[in-house]
Design a protein that fits this description.
The complex is a heterodimer of chains A (507) and B (226). Chain A is mainly alpha-helical and 507 residues long. Chain A has three domains: 1-33, no CATH class; 37-373, Cytochrome Bc1 Complex, Chain C (Up-down Bundle); 382-503, Orthogonal Bundle (Cytochrome Bc1 Complex, Chain D, domain 2), CATH 1.10.760.10. Chain A is built from 22 helices and four strands. Chain A has helices at residues 2-7, 11-23, 26-33, 48-67, 77-86, 91-118, 127-150, 154-167, 174-182, 189-221, 238-249, 253-279, 304-312, 315-339, 351-373, 382-385, 398-409, 432-435, 438-447, 461-471, 485-492, 500-503; strands spanning 36-38, 232-233, 250-252, 343-344. The termini of chain A are far apart. In chain A, 36% of the residues are buried. With 226 residues, chain B is an alpha+beta fold. Chain B folds into two domains: 31-69; 73-192, 3-layer Sandwich (Rieske Iron-sulfur Protein). Chain B has a four-stranded antiparallel beta sheet, with no helix packed on it. In chain B, strands 5-6-7-8 form a four-stranded antiparallel beta sheet, with no helix packed on it. In chain B, strand 6 and strand 7 (150-152) form a beta hairpin. The longest helix of chain B is centred in the N-terminal third of the chain and has 49 residues, at 16-64. The radius of gyration of chain B is 34 Å and the shape is rod-shaped. Chain B starts with 6 loop residues before the first helix and ends in a 5-residue tail after the last helix. The model of chain B is unreliable at 194-226 (pLDDT under 50). Classes of the chains: A mainly alpha (507), B alpha+beta (226). The structure holds FE2/S2 (inorganic) cluster (FES). FE2/S2 (inorganic) cluster binds next to loops of chain B.
């Protein structure tokens, strides 16, 4: 107060006093800023929440700036993004900052959540803070998805198609839901308008309101104390203990803890800027014209893992999975603080919690990694673009070479690699003949099975013969080809102990 | 927030009778206002309910229309553009479009001319999650770039995540023109072809396929001898 009096002499001080007489905000804001924080919580581990908030502000500001130029019309959106990229001064940089800001925000919100979980901060009395946090995560992901739609390119178009196809599987009301999501019968102008309204008005509105509530509750309930093994949370005593802790060893949040938040937030903003400058904006990729089918649509980073999961689920499990799994996961996160609101906070005493985080993180990382190179997708141009390695053609009979041509012409390489080049949908063929007998190969080619279509109708008998004879030469390190052990027995017409010569069949 | 010059505090000492009557009158006023406030809440509740009708009607509008109501006959061109025995990509403009749709109002489909007047017209949208499938004439397969779904030339499922065959459009020949019934983007729930029964979750099984396809399916999917 003394400093306030001193300042009130100057012109600035007088203006401040005039304003505060009317606003009355100086006192509550100072109190909030200086609320006592447990000393050990003034830690680098507690900086993620504020960084997420700062990123949100960055997204709001850059988003408004982009909206100055962006045209939310299906016919013009793609062009307006090109205009932003190439014609508007620094438009590319703002798009890049907004895009990278989004990726960073998803990452920081997730890290924040993991930290809160591992530090037991969701326990009494902060259950509702966690529950609101779960909704903030969902809203952040909602922003990421709708934002990807506004980048109205091929990926966005087919991403919407994937979304519509998923929704269409909702029992009974799938059809109406699809039309409601798209705003009409097709992905078009109405669809983009709907997602624009969601991305610009609806979700940010709810997001900002919930962030306000989230921060208010942090101030009201105090920042989580540093967990100690053996310090048990109990509803009867916790508030009293926390009060005592902050009374005895509390430090004012500003400046004692806040400087770390500020430094981290600055570092994050600089990282966003650095990524934006170095990598540039995301897309837009090709035009959203559904008659251009030469495309391999892919979702943004945050959703790659879902893309991968959808490729690996067995068909009959898929529909139940896509509807039950989210309910279980989100329901579990929402119920967590209500079920485990008391007890140990320290991670050392919660092995299952730590294990769960580890498993989930590794799973997400693996699926995301798979999503970056999509081994399940056929490589559509491999058959016409990648030659057969020369080594596989040397010292081969004319028939075998003819077979190599058949292999190439029938697009086998789209799914099967040779010499490390080609699709990864099916197994690589380099040592095929050491794994499968001739009969097995013929059967597999003609009838399909497992994940392979049948080629019986696409191959003439001559083509089949040539193809199989080439495939039989594919034995790495010239190993002996696989043989059917029972064959020699049936040929011999009598049961006897197979001699050595039976193991390697000579043609 | 009491200030030293509270006007209420000054009124107090002036005669007790006046004070009690004033208090009683104030009480009566208060209950009346409380009642009126409650009433106003109900009133606003009713207004809200009335307003909800246009609001939800507006948002849900597209949901109330049947998929088939968007469909109409569209020409894909003359039959001569689709040689017999071949499968070709055909473009058309969706029958329901707006100015703001731009290129998204275009659509493509695969036309398979079997022979004579027999055709099959497939949606490009994969029956799995809607990605655009591509035709490979040499291996006689449709392949999907997204999760690797594959279909045979007759549109039936070959392998991969799709649990059914490609979506088919209804077609007819008008004079020399090939027409299809199109309009709504096909998904499992908004399939274009109205002829087939549409179970919501259709898992390829011999009983659901046509007899001819059944035999084919059995021949193809016979599993490996152990
Ligand atoms: S969308 Fe075609 S396989 Fe998934």
């Amino acid at each position: 107060m003394a400093s306030l009096n001193k300042r009130s002499n100057s012109a600035a001080g007088r203006t401040f006093a005039w304003l505060d007489r009317r606003l009355g905000l100086a006192k509550p804001l100072t109190e909030a800023a200086q609320h006592p924080t447990p000393e050990r919580s003034a830690s680098w581990w507690y900086v993620f929440g504020s960084a997420a908030t700062v990123l949100l502000i960055l997204q709001v500001v850059t988003g408004i700036l982009l909206a100055l130029v962006y045209s939310p019309s299906a016919g013009e959106a793609w062009g307006s993004l090109q205009f932003l990229n190439h014609n508007v001064t620094l438009g590319w940089l703002l798009r890049a900052i907004h895009g990278w800001g989004s990726d960073f925000m998803v990452a920081i919100v997730l890290i924040h959540m993991v930290q809160v979980f591992l530090f037991g901060a969701y326990k009494f009395p902060r259950e509702l803070t966690w529950i609101i946090g779960v909704f903030l995560l969902l809203l952040t992901l909602g922003m990421a998805f709708t934002g990807q739609v506004l980048r109205f390119d091929q990926d966005a178009y087919w991403g919407l198609g994937i979304g519509a196809s998923i929704i269409s599987r909702v029992p009974w009301i799938g059809g109406p839901l699809v039309h409601m999501m798209l705003g009409g019968p097709i992905i078009g102008g109405q669809t983009l308008s709907r997602f624009f309204a969601l991305h610009v008005f609806v979700i940010p509105g709810i997001l900002l309101a919930l962030v306000g509530l989230h921060v208010w509750m942090v101030l009201r309930l105090g920042i989580n104390e540093w967990p100690m093994p053996g310090r048990i949370v109990s509803k009867a005593t916790y508030e009293h203990e926390y009060h005592e802790l902050t009374e005895n060893s509390g430090v004012p949040f500003v400046p004692d803890a806040a400087w770390k938040d500020a430094v981290f937030a600055a570092a994050i903003m600089l990282s966003v800027l650095a990524c934006a400058l170095y990598f540039g904006p995301f897309g837009p990729t090709g035009q959203p014209d559904p008659t251009i089918i030469q495309t391999a649509p892919k979702p943004d980073f945050a959703f790659l893992w879902i893309y991968a999961v959808l490729a690996y689920l067995p068909p009959e499990l898929e529909t139940p999975f896509i509807f039950i799994a989210p309910i279980v996961v989100i329901g579990g996160m929402l119920l967590l603080p209500l079920v485990a609101g008391e007890g140990e906070k320290h991670w050392k005493r919660r092995p299952i919690a730590v294990l769960m985080v580890g498993i989930i993180a590794v799973t997400l990382a693996i699926f995301t990694q798979l999503g970056t190179y999509t081994p399940w997708s056929p490589i559509m141009e491999a058959w016409s673009g990648e030659a057969i390695p020369v080594a596989y053609l040397q010292q081969r009979s004319p028939l075998e070479r003819q077979g190599a041509l058949v292999l190439q012409n029938k697009q086998c390489r789209n799914c099967h690699a040779l010499g490390g080049v080609g699709g990864m949908r099916g197994p690589a063929l380099d040592s095929l003949a050491t794994r499968m007998t001739e009969d097995q190969i013929i059967r597999q080619v003609l009838q399909g099975g497992g994940n392979m279509p049948a080629y019986g109708k696409a191959l003439s008998p001559a083509e089949t013969r040539a193809l199989v004879s080439f495939l039989m030469t594919l034995r790495e390190k010239n190993l002996a080809p696989a043989v059917d052990a029972s064959r020699s027995l049936t040929h011999a017409g009598a049961m006897r102990v197979p001699a050595k010569s039976d193991v390697v069949r000579t043609p | 927030m009491s200030t030293p010059h509270d006007p209420g505090a000054q009124l107090q000492p002036e005669g007790t009778t006046e004070a009690t009557t004033a208090a009683a009158a104030k009480d009566a006023l208060h209950t009346r206002r409380a009642f009126l406030f409650k009433l106003s809440l109900y009133l606003n509740g009713a207004v809200g309910a009335v307003l909800a009708v246009p609001i939800f009607g507006y948002i849900l509008g597209p949901a109330f229309r049947k998929s088939a109501s968007y469909n109409s006959w569209v020409s894909l061109g003359t039959v001569s553009e689709f040689p017999e025995g071949e499968t070709r990509l055909a473009d058309y403009r969706n029958p329901v479009t707006m100015v703001s749709d731009g290129a998204t109002g275009n659509a493509a489909c695969w036309v398979r001319h079997i022979e004579g007047k027999r055709f099959q017209v497939f949606a490009i949208n994969c029956a799995h999650l809607g990605c655009p499938v591509r035709w490979f004439a040499q291996s006689r397969l449709f392949l999907c770039p997204c999760h690797g779904g594959a279909y045979y030339e007759d549109g039936s499922r070959a392998s991969g995540p799709p649990e059914r065959g490609l979506f088919e459009y209804e077609y007819k020949l008008v004079g020399n023109h090939l027409m299809i019934q199109a309009g709504a983007m096909p998904t499992p729930a908004t399939e274009a072809c109205a002829k087939k029964p549409k179970p919501l979750i259709q898992i390829e099984s011999p009983s659901s396929a046509a007899p001819a396809q059944e035999a084919e399916a059995a021949e193809r999917s016979s599993s490996w001898p152990a």
